[in-house]
Amino acid sequence: MEWLVVVLNFIGQQILNVPAYLIGIITAIGLMALKRNSGQVIGGALKAALGFLILGAGANVVVGSLDPLGQLILAVTGAQGVIPTNEVITAIAQDKFGAQSAYVLTLGFLVMLALARFTPLKYVFLTGHHMVFMATMLTVVLSVGFGDGASWLVVLIGALLLGVIMVVMPAFVHPWTKKITGNDTIAIGHFGTLGYIAAGAAGQVVGRNSKSTEDIKFPQGLKFLRDSMVATSLSMVLIYMVFAIWGLIALPMQEALDIFGSADAGAFIMAAFAQALQFGVGVAVILYGVRTVLGELVPAFQGIAEKVVPGARPALDIPIVFPFGANAVLIGFLSSFAGGLIALGVLAVWLNPVFGLALILPGMVPHFFTGGGAGVYGNATGGRLGAMIGGFVNGVIITILPAILLLVLGDFGFANSTFGDADFGWFGTLVGVSVGVGGGLAVILAILIAVVLVGVAIVYQIRVVDKGWVPGAKRDVWIAAEKAAEKAVLDAEKAERKATKEAAAEAV
Prior knowledge:
This protein is an all-alpha fold. The protein contains 15 helices and three strands. The protein has a three-stranded parallel sheet, with helices on both faces. Helix 8 packs across helix 10. It is globular and about 100 Å long. The termini are far apart.
């Protein structure tokens, strides 16, 4: 059976773990289902894959820009603790659980397709790296609960839970996603979903009379800030400059210079300035990549929906919503980071001394991607206030939940790392605690979790999503009234100018 492990590892690690290949394959299948000619199939698949590679390139630029900022902040604040990093803990776990997680990943994908085909949960999760992270986490948690000698049970239960979580989470967040995109063609397939739902709900509570972040009116001299790339870059320049100057003052000179590899203080400041501009470049590249992917994938996916999984929607990575709220992304990111700092304080003064929870440091990358997404979801239901509070709530969630998840993973030696996004926290903890009872009851509880999640999601899909519930509908009425009032004022001013002009003409 070793050859089968090799094949599954190849499929899992070299194809399913590369979102661009997965998107290209899905696009090709969709175009073939639509009976397009070979040239259109090859061209469409390549363009969709290239769009995702562009998106990934932009993400790498953003990550490369945020990493030194994170080092700088940790150095000047002196904070110590765990930084949740999905890639790190997945890499650590692969040495021991690589084969099992490959089986879980492959079978879990088939379970997801079966659920999408035969239930009302018509979502196909396409964010490959998150599939790998979740498969690895489930393999580790189930191995802890079931113990040695139960590899086949870990694979079967892990695949079931993975397939379930990949269709239920896009369903739960879909009313907010539809409100953001304005249609029902795509869904969100990202395991920060709990944070996005919390952001949307928080926005609905606090922002009933708050205007959209995208309608921010700048004074004449600041109208250049209407360009989201300029506004994003300038904001990061300010943040970088604050911490760079703080670093030069608070740190030994050589320690500060080593962060950017600079020769002197002037080069250090300019390196910080360049990193901030790189952040703006990365965000612009991400937005271009998203538009390219959507232009090819959505039409192609209609072919799959018609032939393989009728009515299915592609569930895509979170940056797919960034073009719908560029200002909200920045506000959500900064608010999420603030929430992470506040939650770190709560951990330090209360939860760590009393319950032994680890200190979770705010990583810039998860706060940018999940915080930015939460800002967009919060803005959709609560405008500017919703984006701020929604991002803040997300920051608290992705700080507290990873600390709790460490209690489940800690016995296996991963106490210095953990999974970062919200759904890894709640789902991993729920599964870990349930299978922790051991024996046959552990299997029953794991299956029960899957059954309950699917059952609740089906009811939610039928009674909430399919019936067209619109979150924040009351605010929409207020927004419409505000726009109507603004239009009436503009029309009155226009009529007054016209009457004045006509009166002047008659006087002549």
